[in-house]
Amino acid sequence: MSKKLVEAMADLEEDAVLAEVKALKAQNVPALDIIAYLQEGMSIVGKRFEEKEYFLSELIMSAEIFNEASQLLGGGMGGAGSSKYGTFVMGTIYDDIHDIGKNIVTTVMSSNGFNVIDLGVDVPTAKYVEAIKQYKPKVIGISCLLTTAFDNIKECIQTLEKEGLRKDIKILIGGGPVDEATCKYVGADHVCKNAQETVEYSKKYMGV
Q: Where are the domains of the chain?
Protein backbone atom coordinates (compact mmCIF):
# COMPACT_ATOMS: atom_id res chain seq x y z
CA MET A 1 0.00 0.00 0.00
CA SER A 2 1.52 3.30 -1.08
CA LYS A 3 0.05 5.77 1.37
CA LYS A 4 2.39 8.38 -0.10
CA LEU A 5 0.84 8.06 -3.56
CA VAL A 6 -2.74 8.04 -2.23
CA GLU A 7 -2.10 11.22 -0.22
CA ALA A 8 -0.25 12.98 -3.06
CA MET A 9 -3.15 12.22 -5.41
CA ALA A 10 -5.69 13.40 -2.84
CA ASP A 11 -3.72 16.61 -2.24
CA LEU A 12 -3.32 17.24 -6.01
CA GLU A 13 0.46 17.29 -5.76
CA GLU A 14 1.26 16.58 -9.38
CA ASP A 15 5.07 16.36 -9.10
CA ALA A 16 4.85 14.07 -6.07
CA VAL A 17 2.30 11.83 -7.80
CA LEU A 18 4.41 11.41 -10.93
CA ALA A 19 7.60 10.87 -8.92
CA GLU A 20 5.95 8.18 -6.78
CA VAL A 21 4.44 6.44 -9.81
CA LYS A 22 7.89 6.30 -11.40
CA ALA A 23 9.41 5.01 -8.16
CA LEU A 24 6.80 2.27 -7.76
CA LYS A 25 7.18 1.30 -11.38
CA ALA A 26 10.96 1.02 -10.89
CA GLN A 27 10.26 -1.30 -7.94
CA ASN A 28 8.20 -3.50 -10.30
CA VAL A 29 4.94 -2.80 -8.48
CA PRO A 30 2.14 -4.04 -10.80
CA ALA A 31 0.49 -1.26 -12.84
CA LEU A 32 -2.96 -2.30 -11.64
CA ASP A 33 -1.85 -1.84 -8.01
CA ILE A 34 -0.52 1.62 -8.80
CA ILE A 35 -3.82 2.47 -10.54
CA ALA A 36 -5.67 1.27 -7.44
CA TYR A 37 -3.65 3.69 -5.25
CA LEU A 38 -4.41 6.53 -7.66
CA GLN A 39 -8.11 5.65 -7.62
CA GLU A 40 -8.11 5.62 -3.83
CA GLY A 41 -6.69 9.14 -3.95
CA MET A 42 -9.37 10.12 -6.49
CA SER A 43 -12.01 8.79 -4.14
CA ILE A 44 -10.73 11.18 -1.44
CA VAL A 45 -10.82 14.02 -4.00
CA GLY A 46 -14.47 13.12 -4.62
CA LYS A 47 -15.28 13.29 -0.90
CA ARG A 48 -13.57 16.66 -0.59
CA PHE A 49 -15.56 17.91 -3.57
CA GLU A 50 -18.81 16.78 -1.94
CA GLU A 51 -17.82 18.51 1.29
CA LYS A 52 -17.07 21.69 -0.73
CA GLU A 53 -13.42 21.62 0.28
CA TYR A 54 -12.62 21.18 -3.41
CA PHE A 55 -14.43 22.74 -6.37
CA LEU A 56 -14.81 21.99 -10.08
CA SER A 57 -11.32 23.29 -10.93
CA GLU A 58 -9.77 20.82 -8.43
CA LEU A 59 -11.91 18.00 -9.81
CA ILE A 60 -10.67 18.70 -13.34
CA MET A 61 -7.08 19.03 -12.10
CA SER A 62 -7.28 15.69 -10.29
CA ALA A 63 -8.47 13.96 -13.48
CA GLU A 64 -5.63 15.54 -15.47
CA ILE A 65 -3.03 14.43 -12.91
CA PHE A 66 -4.54 10.94 -12.92
CA ASN A 67 -4.39 10.73 -16.70
CA GLU A 68 -0.80 11.94 -16.75
CA ALA A 69 0.15 9.34 -14.15
CA SER A 70 -1.64 6.58 -16.06
CA GLN A 71 0.30 7.52 -19.21
CA LEU A 72 3.50 6.67 -17.31
CA LEU A 73 2.08 3.19 -16.85
CA GLY A 74 1.65 2.70 -20.57
CA GLY A 75 -1.55 4.34 -21.69
CA GLY A 76 -4.81 5.97 -20.74
CA MET A 77 -7.69 4.46 -18.84
CA GLY A 78 -10.03 3.70 -21.71
CA GLY A 79 -9.38 -0.02 -21.99
CA ALA A 80 -11.67 -2.65 -20.54
CA GLY A 81 -8.76 -4.12 -18.59
CA SER A 82 -8.66 -1.05 -16.38
CA SER A 83 -12.38 -1.12 -15.64
CA LYS A 84 -13.18 -1.54 -11.97
CA TYR A 85 -16.88 -0.70 -11.94
CA GLY A 86 -18.16 -1.51 -15.43
CA THR A 87 -18.83 0.38 -18.64
CA PHE A 88 -20.25 3.89 -18.95
CA VAL A 89 -21.38 5.21 -22.34
CA MET A 90 -21.49 9.00 -22.77
CA GLY A 91 -22.19 11.51 -25.51
CA THR A 92 -23.70 14.89 -26.32
CA ILE A 93 -27.10 14.49 -28.01
CA TYR A 94 -27.52 15.26 -31.71
CA ASP A 95 -27.88 18.91 -32.79
CA ASP A 96 -25.63 19.93 -29.87
CA ILE A 97 -21.85 20.13 -30.25
CA HIS A 98 -20.89 21.26 -26.73
CA ASP A 99 -18.18 19.02 -25.33
CA ILE A 100 -16.58 20.61 -22.25
CA GLY A 101 -19.05 19.18 -19.73
CA LYS A 102 -19.04 15.81 -21.45
CA ASN A 103 -15.24 15.72 -21.45
CA ILE A 104 -15.05 16.53 -17.74
CA VAL A 105 -17.52 13.74 -16.92
CA THR A 106 -15.79 11.13 -19.11
CA THR A 107 -12.37 12.00 -17.70
CA VAL A 108 -13.52 11.91 -14.07
CA MET A 109 -15.51 8.70 -14.60
CA SER A 110 -12.51 7.08 -16.26
CA SER A 111 -10.16 8.10 -13.47
CA ASN A 112 -12.61 6.64 -10.93
CA GLY A 113 -12.41 3.18 -12.44
CA PHE A 114 -15.11 3.08 -15.12
CA ASN A 115 -14.50 1.86 -18.65
CA VAL A 116 -15.74 4.93 -20.55
CA ILE A 117 -17.02 4.82 -24.11
CA ASP A 118 -17.09 8.41 -25.35
CA LEU A 119 -19.41 8.74 -28.35
CA GLY A 120 -18.45 12.38 -28.93
CA VAL A 121 -20.84 15.22 -29.78
CA ASP A 122 -23.89 15.53 -32.06
CA VAL A 123 -24.59 11.85 -31.33
CA PRO A 124 -27.55 10.35 -33.23
CA THR A 125 -29.93 7.94 -31.53
CA ALA A 126 -28.70 5.08 -33.71
CA LYS A 127 -25.20 5.49 -32.28
CA TYR A 128 -26.52 5.14 -28.71
CA VAL A 129 -28.48 2.04 -29.74
CA GLU A 130 -25.39 0.52 -31.34
CA ALA A 131 -23.16 1.34 -28.33
CA ILE A 132 -25.62 -0.14 -25.83
CA LYS A 133 -25.91 -3.35 -27.85
CA GLN A 134 -22.14 -3.59 -28.24
CA TYR A 135 -20.89 -2.58 -24.78
CA LYS A 136 -23.89 -3.49 -22.60
CA PRO A 137 -23.45 -0.64 -20.09
CA LYS A 138 -25.59 -0.39 -16.98
CA VAL A 139 -25.45 3.41 -17.06
CA ILE A 140 -25.36 5.88 -19.95
CA GLY A 141 -24.94 9.65 -19.91
CA ILE A 142 -26.52 12.17 -22.28
CA SER A 143 -25.15 15.71 -22.21
CA CYS A 144 -27.15 18.67 -23.51
CA LEU A 145 -26.56 22.41 -23.28
CA LEU A 146 -29.28 23.54 -25.66
CA THR A 147 -32.95 23.61 -24.66
CA THR A 148 -33.76 23.10 -28.34
CA ALA A 149 -32.24 19.62 -28.11
CA PHE A 150 -34.44 18.39 -25.21
CA ASP A 151 -36.85 16.77 -27.69
CA ASN A 152 -33.89 14.92 -29.19
CA ILE A 153 -33.09 13.36 -25.81
CA LYS A 154 -36.74 12.39 -25.46
CA GLU A 155 -36.73 10.79 -28.92
CA CYS A 156 -33.50 8.94 -28.11
CA ILE A 157 -34.89 7.51 -24.86
CA GLN A 158 -38.19 6.52 -26.50
CA THR A 159 -36.26 4.69 -29.22
CA LEU A 160 -34.23 2.82 -26.60
CA GLU A 161 -37.53 1.72 -25.04
CA LYS A 162 -38.88 0.54 -28.41
CA GLU A 163 -35.65 -1.39 -29.01
CA GLY A 164 -36.07 -3.13 -25.65
CA LEU A 165 -32.84 -1.60 -24.30
CA ARG A 166 -34.30 0.71 -21.68
CA LYS A 167 -35.16 -1.68 -18.85
CA ASP A 168 -31.58 -2.74 -18.17
CA ILE A 169 -29.95 0.68 -18.00
CA LYS A 170 -30.08 3.92 -16.07
CA ILE A 171 -30.01 7.10 -18.17
CA LEU A 172 -28.32 10.14 -16.65
CA ILE A 173 -28.65 13.59 -18.21
CA GLY A 174 -26.71 16.76 -17.51
CA GLY A 175 -25.83 20.21 -18.79
CA GLY A 176 -26.48 23.84 -17.95
CA PRO A 177 -30.24 24.11 -18.65
CA VAL A 178 -31.09 20.55 -17.57
CA ASP A 179 -33.17 20.18 -14.40
CA GLU A 180 -35.68 17.82 -12.75
CA ALA A 181 -38.48 19.05 -15.03
CA THR A 182 -36.32 18.20 -18.06
CA CYS A 183 -35.59 14.77 -16.59
CA LYS A 184 -39.31 14.05 -16.25
CA TYR A 185 -40.06 15.43 -19.73
CA VAL A 186 -37.47 13.34 -21.56
CA GLY A 187 -37.97 10.21 -19.45
CA ALA A 188 -34.46 9.98 -17.99
CA ASP A 189 -33.64 8.48 -14.58
CA HIS A 190 -31.56 11.18 -12.97
CA VAL A 191 -30.08 14.65 -13.46
CA CYS A 192 -26.40 14.93 -12.57
CA LYS A 193 -25.29 18.47 -11.78
CA ASN A 194 -21.59 17.61 -11.89
CA ALA A 195 -19.09 14.86 -12.67
CA GLN A 196 -18.74 13.66 -9.08
CA GLU A 197 -22.50 13.15 -8.80
CA THR A 198 -22.28 11.01 -11.96
CA VAL A 199 -19.57 8.90 -10.31
CA GLU A 200 -21.50 8.44 -7.06
CA TYR A 201 -24.82 7.62 -8.74
CA SER A 202 -23.17 5.12 -11.09
CA LYS A 203 -21.26 3.40 -8.28
CA LYS A 204 -24.44 3.15 -6.21
CA TYR A 205 -26.46 1.70 -9.08
CA MET A 206 -23.73 -0.79 -9.91
CA GLY A 207 -23.70 -1.91 -6.30
CA VAL A 208 -20.23 -0.65 -5.45
A: 3-72, 80-205
